[in-house]
Amino acid sequence: MKRLLLTLAVWLLAHGAALAHKPSDSYLSVQAGEDRSTLTIRWDIALRDLDYVLQLDRDGNGELTWGEVRSREADIQRLASGRLSFVANGQPCPWSDAAPLQLDRHSDGTYAVLGFAAQCGPLAQGLTLRYSLLFDVDPTHRGLVQWRAPGEEQPQPLVFAVDSAEQPLSLEAPSAWETLRQYVWEGVWHIWIGFDHILFLLALLLPAVLRRQDGRWQPVDSLRAALVDVVKVVTAFTLAHSITLSLAALGLVSLPSRLVESVIAASVVVAALANLRGGRASRRRWLMAFIFGLIHGFGFASVLADLGLPQNALVLALVGFNVGVELGQLAIVAVFLPLAFALRRTGFYRVGVLQVGSLLIALVALWWFVERAFDL
Amino acid sequence: MSFTSPLAQAAPFTPANDAEVVERLPARAADDPTLRRVESLRKQLAAQPQDAALRIEIARRYFDLAMAQGDPRYVGYASGAIAPLASADPRDAAYWLVRGQLEQYNHDFEAALASLARAAELAPALADAYAWRAAIFMVQARAREALAECERLAPLAEPLWAVGCRAYARAGLGELQPAFDELSRAAGASPQATPAVRLWADTRLAEMALRLQRPEDAERFFRRALGLDITDQFLLAAYADFLLARQRAPEALKLLAGWERSDILLLRLALAGRAANDPRANEWTGELRERFQAAARRGDTLHEWEAARFELEVENRPERALQLAAENYKKQKEPRDAEMLMRTALAANRPAAAEPALAWLRSSGYQDPALAALSQQLAAKGGQR
């Protein structure tokens, strides 16, 4: 038997742990009243969990009747009120007004619905929730809390676990800071994994440490000159894609994604080829950055659409994502510029990096273009 | 997630009379001897909470129940049973074994490896410890280290099992054909092996046959494994995927009938239902969506692979799918995890995101035409081959 289990175990593991049922969660909604002193609470606890702790199934037949549940109402209330507490201004808030026990169905079974209130006195600062239901018998249990601060429509989700059993309840609006942080990070991530955006930017930046003189590339004299050039390109690109990203994300403009993706690929080809020719276009790279940046903005917008935008914090998310994209870009520039500046006098940079590099970029992007435009 | 989510709150109700059955508990202690036994141990523990051996025994039994029934609450109960022992640093191999098993279940692989090593140190003949370490190394794409654990396991385990462990590891090291030959010879020569071991070996053989582009053989092994009459949702999932990939969705639907309660099989049901235009497809999709939302709400990341496939093939959101697949690949690096990362990166048009999987493919010598084809497509889009 032991060996049998052993094999089974490894077999199961080799396929990753799969869950056929839900782990244990309870659902709490806590709302602060307009009087800024009363908290109204609804708490849904799975009957199965209550049975595990309180043995509700008295006759042991595996079926819970309403009678078996109802007759233990006092025990259930006692368990619940002992495993939840609010502390305001350093004082525990006493319970009041327990509503009669009711039931509700969730996706994984029937839950007991408890309703009660807590009187906290004037809520100023420092409201804390302590949650410890089931943590002693099931450390994987979670308390999923929806907290509505006074006067707030939108609840804040909080997850209580063994190692986060005590958390402050913010009396301010749902943290805009959190939303912003999350979308900034998404923006950074998407420029980093977006090969086409990176190549476009690099193609435009490669000549920044050189200048065109008598039909030849010469190294710039100062870092300042290179920096000015980089700033012009990056600013133009940023400005352009911010405009279209915003328009698209707000649903004001939309373009078919195949067109957008194809033009993005084409933009990389054009930018890279301009480096090889070194003509007027290569001096006005900021203009190219702006024009094609408009299209790249639509590309970012489709990413953002996939992520989903919070309706209550649309603008915040949009700004966050944009800032993230910029930060991601700046990180790339910060790596590129010192390297390129150091190498600018070498033949390796002028031929190997600028010429051969641009040619390679153009070829890769040309292939993307063919693939995207003709849907290969 | 919005406050009005159906998961969260609906209108509560009060049943009309006391006799109404409001909930059926998942397994009746009365019918299930395993559950009855652990229930009685729990009662004993209530009387003597200081009994460490009793706690370990309860945890072990709950973990076995979780594995058999796929119910994560039992994992929680097992953790709860041994939690008070952690501070005492027990010198009992059984404690470290079950602790390691629980840690791997929660994908805390480094901690699990350490706990299992501790178990092996305390009881060098404990085959389970090596087997679990081998399995974890395979999940982390560390086939060479897995092979070393298999060698330690060999003198302690039944022959087919030892061969299977080795073959599985070698097949991940570019020795697919010899590994397949060795395992299929051993499986043919071991009719006395326990059914569970034969099931495991046959399923592995089916997978290897697929990689060797011998689908008829693969199907033969799948059918032989199914013929053992052991209910195993992972075998069902693997065979369903085989059928789905061959446009045989109606057969997959028949195979999986009634398996909605399993997340991994519900995913295949939804996919097969869509492919076969089954009227239940929408219902399955909706149910699955709800389960993934519930998991996301509690911050659960245990089935990111399934969620990635769901986003990719059902919801058609390649960006989101890629995000999940990339997150999954940070911890789980089996071939199927690599494949999902490559597929989603391709679909999202972000070949660079597949780089970790491509790097593994280049360095491991892993042979699989499906992965090779994906890597070529990614290379064409700008990823490194």
Automatic annotation (TrEMBL), chain A:
Q: Which InterPro entries match?
A: EF_Hand_1_Ca_BS (IPR018247), Put_HupE_UreJ (IPR032809)
Keywords of the record, alphabetical order, are: Membrane, Signal, Transmembrane, Transmembrane helix
Extent of the signal sequence: 1-20
PROSITE patterns (UniProt xref): EF_HAND_1
Query: Which positions, given as ranges, span the membrane?
Result: 189-210, 230-253, 259-276, 288-309, 315-341, 348-370
Query: What is the protein name given in its UniProt record?
Result: Candidate membrane protein
